[in-house]
Amino acid sequence: MKLSRNRADSWLLEAGWARAGQVAEQDNRVVMMNEHFYPLRVHFEDTDCTGVVYHANYLKFMERARSEWIDSLGIGADWRESAGVHFLVHSLRIQFMQPARLHDRIEVVSRILSVRAASIIFDQCLRLDSMPDKILCRAEIKIACVDKDMLPRAIPEAPILESIRRSLS
Fold first, then answer.
1. What is the total count of domains within the chain?
2. Is 85 a member of any domain?
C-alpha cells in the first residue's frame, strides 16, 4: 500500500495506519482513511478474573464505535430497518497487543478502509486515552450489506453511500 501523506506520526505508520484525511492507493483503487473516535471507560463488568478486559469485549467496544459513527451519519438502525437494509459482520481479523484494565479510559479509533458494492471494510484500534501511541488491540472488520432475507444487496447510494462520502471528505 502506497501512502500519500504530508506528515504522519510514527506509531500510526508502525501500526499500518495513515493520518486522518489521507488517501492510500491499493490495487489501483482509492482507499479512504478518515477517523472516528469513540471514548469509553473500562468497567468491572468488562473485565475477567485477572482484572483485564475480557477478549470478546474488545469486539463489543468496536461494535459500539461503528454503530455510533453510522448513527451520527443519519443512517441509524431505525432508518436501515425501514429501508430493509442491514449490516452484518462478514469476517474479521483481530490482534491483541496489550490488555486494557479496570478504570482505564480508552478510545476506539475507527477508519473506513474501503467501500465496495455490498460491503465496507473498517480498520479499528483501541488505545489508551492518556497514551494515544499505546495500541491495545487492532482489528480489520468486513461488514456486509444484506436485505431482510439476509441475502447480499448493494449498499444504497442515498443516503448511505452519500453520508459515508461526506464524512470522509
1. 1
2. yes
